[in-house]
Amino acid sequence: MGVLVIALPIPIIFAAFEEEFGSIIVPFIIVVLIEAFFISMVLDTKYIVDGEILFYRSGPIRGKIDISKIRKIEENNSFVKYSTFKPGLSNRGFVIHFNTFDDIFISPENKEAFVTLLLQINPGIQVC
């Protein structure tokens, strides 16, 4: 992730030396916005359990899950994620299946404590 954030402005820097400055303003603004998005995800990714609600936040992406609606938690340590939504920063984490067809990939720092906490609230969760 860090390499991507550092490498994004390189084409803009080279273009600045070959063309007029005015022609690179729009690409520069786009690159800055993309970098701000990635940096906000890195600096602001959290999972908070409050009562029976799991709140997740990864930069501007935020949401909540009713823990009583969680059906299954699958550990996923592969590079390929089969989840429809991934606000986790790591390749090692869990796919949480909830409601009927919804799922989300998350990567809490302390995985065992996180699963234990969810199981205390909803003992009917199937852990794979």
Features:
4-stranded mixed beta sheet; 128 residues; 30% strand; elongated; alpha+beta; 3-stranded antiparallel beta sheet; single chain; 4 helices
Number of strands: 7
How far is the first residue's CA from the last residue's CA?
A: 29 Å
Element string (H = helix, E = strand): HHHEEEEEEHE
Largest sheet: 4 strands, mixed
Question: Rounded to an integer, what's the Rg over CA atoms?
Answer: 19 Å
Helix and strand content put the structural class at: alpha+beta
Residue ranges: pLDDT <50 for 5 or more in a row? none
Rounded mean pLDDT is 79
Residues in helix, %: 25-40%
Q: What percentage of the residues does DSSP assign to strands (E)? A: 25-35%
Q: How is the largest sheet built, in terms of strand order?
A: 6-5-4-7
- Total helical elements: 4
How would you sum up the global shape?
elongated
